[in-house]
């Protein structure tokens, strides 16, 4: 009796469509929907899609009423927009909701409408799912021929589209029909076929379901140890996968088995666990099944009050969900309890309700037992005529059941013989299959090892090639660097030869010729004395060029030493301006020295002198007659920026870009033909950077140039050098 109750609960575990795996929080989806309706009320298709997503989220939370509402709203929009695919999905989901709410007829209508839409769309996968779920409803109603017909339609489509997981699921449902019809050989064969597919797919949920079905078959054949073993295997897999609904089902079946074995303590523990899980997830059919079985145990133990309370609760739940077989079991038990309690009127009422249900389900055994109860109640109430009538009905149904039992027992004996014979064949086939699987695993493992070795070899080869490539690339970069360095050295060498051959050879040649004339008495003392200032100037220029060459070569050989100390910048600038006073007077230049008199900087005195001399010399060299040169500073925390500005020739941006590139700059003649070497700015950059500063220039053709360099400010308490 209890096994029939729990098997329907087992089937419902596989009703839930994959579409209901909703993602996201319901509240956030509702906010998005409200915003969309306010901002874009005409985007009906998008609104419907959000409503469908919300409906799925509610379904996952087992809030069926809200899920129903949003599915209906979405379905209406999809129908009006002629989106038949989404409309059929809504209909299918509404069928699922109706099933779990216990309205079997409404579920059938929704599934049939969904199937009609999917036939138009030629949606084979959707059709297979629809036929399978429609069969589940008829299975619950006990209409096994209808259920089997729709299961077979679903199976045919799934085989056509090669949906292996779906094939296994439908096979398990077909096996349940064979089980109800006492065809245990067919049930076992179908379950084992489903098991092979589930194992090949590594579908733990499917495997656990088959184990549960096999256990039910063994229990029917009174092979209780084998049944318990398979129940425990099923429960272990369900615990691993977190299948709470499946756990509740198997625990319910385990409790029923322990009751059969009269081990009531173990039965109560298992059934209580099943009830708690079903209550937690809101699974009404599971709650009813657990309560019915618990009530049956309390009845066996003589605890009638507890049994009565639980039977009434179970009956109420079964009425809500339309589970007629469950209702019949509870009503029959209630009628029997009230008879034992001598409440004959209530016993009669429940028995008469049971008669109606038993006739609908064509359950002759229940009709026999209920008529016997009615007869006893009428006899106790003194209505002997009615008692006799129902006693006659009792015997009529008893004879019918007896004949049916004879047929069943004969069929069962034959079936058990066939079962044992076929089981041996199935086990042999299973061993052969296991052997093939083991061989295939060994072959795959060998291939994996071979692949790993090949891959390892390829990695080694690739590593060698890559390292060789890196070495070659590094060598190529070094070679290019050496080539660039050599090219630069050649350019410098050419520049030096140009300086030595032109800038030094010319002035020295003039001096040599002048001294030769004086030596040959072709020039008197007065004439020689007149040329002495010019001679002094030329020798000074030669000496400056030689000094610059020496300093530059020392810089190239990294031999420059810097000994910074505090220096009054104004004093050093006055010294350099006095040095160039003759040249500035010749060009009639106006020189402004705006450097503060007390400003001290931290630098090597010789380096600062060279920098100022070269930059002031360049300013004079490229200034026009009557022009202006300005020396100024800007202080920022511990840094002083020195600016030397002229109003002379200026430079283009291209010329500016060639400066300060750590190469010798091209020489350019001054406004009165002054010749330079190009070494000055290079030395300025070298010494400034050596001191931790920077040098840069701003210039515009015809408007002059401003050369800037930065230097560290000396601290207040530093000892100054004058």
From TrEMBL:
Keyword Membrane on entry: yes
Spans of repeat TPR: 128-161, 208-241, 248-281, 288-321
Gene3D superfamilies to which the protein is assigned, alphabetical: 1.10.287.130, Histidine kinase-like ATPase, C-terminal domain, Tetratricopeptide repeat domain
EC numbers for this chain: 2.7.13.3
Extent of the signal sequence: 1-22
Name under which the protein is recorded: histidine kinase
Family annotation (Pfam families): HATPase_c, TPR_12
Keywords: Membrane, Phosphoprotein, Signal, TPR repeat, Transmembrane, Transmembrane helix
Species for this entry: Fontibacter flavus
Reactions catalysed according to its record: ATP + protein L-histidine = ADP + protein N-phospho-L-histidine
Enzyme class, first EC level, given as a word: transferase
InterPro entries in alphabetical order: HATPase_C_sf (IPR036890), HATPase_dom (IPR003594), His_kinase_dom (IPR005467), HisK_dim/P_dom (IPR003661), HisK_dim/P_sf (IPR036097), Sig_transdc_His_kin-like_C (IPR004358), TPR-like_helical_dom_sf (IPR011990), TPR_rpt (IPR019734)
Domain Histidine kinase: 499-715
Transmembrane region(s): 450-469
